[in-house]
């Protein structure tokens, strides 16, 4: 650990902090239907889309209709993407001549990109044609992110309105999220990436002659455009197999910085947008503070653990002055590797600039634990916000029990119905993660896919289902996941993590929107104070710690103490 490293991390979060308010205010105007500086250009385009689709932007939906629209749109997206992948050999822009993707892998990939997970059981440069990358994967990088934003907006309106029956129009929210927010920012970031050296071409590859005189084929493609929306939409799927550790996806320290800022900005700004739209900016800042406390703590623990080096290698005489550099890029170093790992797992991004499976036991546990907390730090675009609101509902319920009052959040009384929906949502994650991990740790053909014996092998399985259910998409490495068992079960886990969580959230929106929004009284527990932030952080930690500690104790925690003792497995 070094002062320079901490200054790099501090500057990163300062940049994001400065971007939160202006972008949050802009999005609040967009989602409220107000005029913005982009309206003269994009307004006619937006109205044209509604006309072509037969959508009346003034007609709103109840929560059931909204949820049905989300499911219908996602199902159609899954079917169309599956078809593109299976028919890849017959579609254009396939200069490599790649065949169609196998059925189980096509299912896994289609589910992955539709659910904003972007788990990849394949090497992008050796499996996907340019058409599949652009018309299939990149399109869903936009619309899956926009779907998450839309669902967060539905819950936001539930807190804004009184005695209402509607939570918005999904098709309008989807269109505005894509057209006014994701697309303009993706164009700007893609141009910046091209300037930094990322390829943006329809060529398949170039041939280079190495210093030894051998010929080497270097894969190319439309990388910059996919990389931009991958990070802005917290998607995480890389064009290349090694993701942001590849020099064509992340060539310099500056591009690494832009990657992390792009990941954080929209998700964090949406929390401010929430505060602006409900008329209480302090509430937005309170949520941001809770997210920041846990995320910065995660960065610090990973940085500390990796900077200590690997005790086993130190005992063998290896100089650990640079810490544990196995699986890391020297151009980024410990600090920016730790920041990237914590941010990508505190979000539901999943992009990586190092191999998490090469971290120390404790350093590898923290990214896994950040995902298990519910992907709310600040989580995926949209999904992080509604996930944090679920935890806030649980927190005010606990506060209500302590002070003997009916719990309230932003003037809406939280009653038994909302609590049942909230608990249904949060229990989906451990149910999927722990059950699938248990089966995979017992079935011989599933165990044979791990790359390392002992606790690290269990961590590989646990990390995979944590990542899939949390709609993250990063991998621990070592697990050979491209098999019918893992492709199918990981796909099911992704669906549960996305829709098993989101449908109860929309049900909460439907329940709250019909209630009266009351003004705060002297007996109301304030939810924008440091006391509430501390309570919220505690609820998040307890929900994660109690559910997953036994599994973590058998995996990365055992590995950590074994490394300290100089033991290998």
UniProtKB/TrEMBL annotation:
It is a multi-pass membrane protein. InterPro entries: KdpA. The lineage of its organism: Bacteria, Pseudomonadati, Pseudomonadota, Alphaproteobacteria, Hyphomicrobiales. The system is composed of three essential subunits: KdpA, KdpB and KdpC. Pfam families: KdpA (PF03814). It comes from the Bacteria. GO terms for cellular component: plasma membrane. Part of the high-affinity ATP-driven potassium transport (or Kdp) system, which catalyzes the hydrolysis of ATP coupled with the electrogenic transport of potassium into the cytoplasm. This subunit binds the extracellular potassium ions and delivers the ions to the membrane domain of KdpB through an intramembrane tunnel. The keyword Ion transport applies. Keywords: Cell membrane, Ion transport, Membrane, Potassium, Potassium transport, Transmembrane, Transmembrane helix, Transport. The chain crosses the membrane at residues 6-28, 63-85, 139-159, 179-198, 257-274, 286-305, 385-403, 424-447, 490-510, 531-549. GO terms for molecular function: P-type potassium transmembrane transporter activity; potassium ion binding. This is Potassium-transporting ATPase potassium-binding subunit. The keyword Membrane applies. It is found in: Cell membrane. The gene is kdpA. Belongs to the KdpA family. It comes from Mesorhizobium hungaricum.
